[in-house]
Amino acid sequence: MGEIREPTHVMLVFFSAQGHLNPMLQFAGHLSSRGITTTLATTSIGQEGILKGGTRAVLEAEGTIKFEFYSDGWDSRVPIVHLDDYMDKLEIVGSESLASLVEELAANGRRVSYMISSPFTPWVVDVAKKLEIPCSVLWIQSSLVYSYYYRVYGGLGANGEVPVNLPGLPELKLEDLPSLSLPSNPYKSFPRILTQLYARLGDVRMVLGNSFDELEPEEIRFVEGLHPIRLVGPLVPQALLERSQPAAISDLRRDMWDASPQCLTWLDSKKATSVVYVSMGSLLVMPPKQMEEMAWGLKASALPFLWVAKPSENSSNTTGMPEGFLEEVQGQGIVVPWCPQAEVLSHPSIACFVTHCGWNSTLETITAGVPVIAIPEWTDQPTNAMLLVEVLGVGLRLRAGPDGVVSREEVAKCITATTQGAMAEEMKTKAWTRKEAARAALAHGGSSDRNIVAFVDDVMKSGHSQGPG
Question: What InterPro entries does UniProt report for this protein, alphabetically (predicted)?
Answer without folding.
Answer: UDP_glucos_trans, UDP_glycos_trans_CS
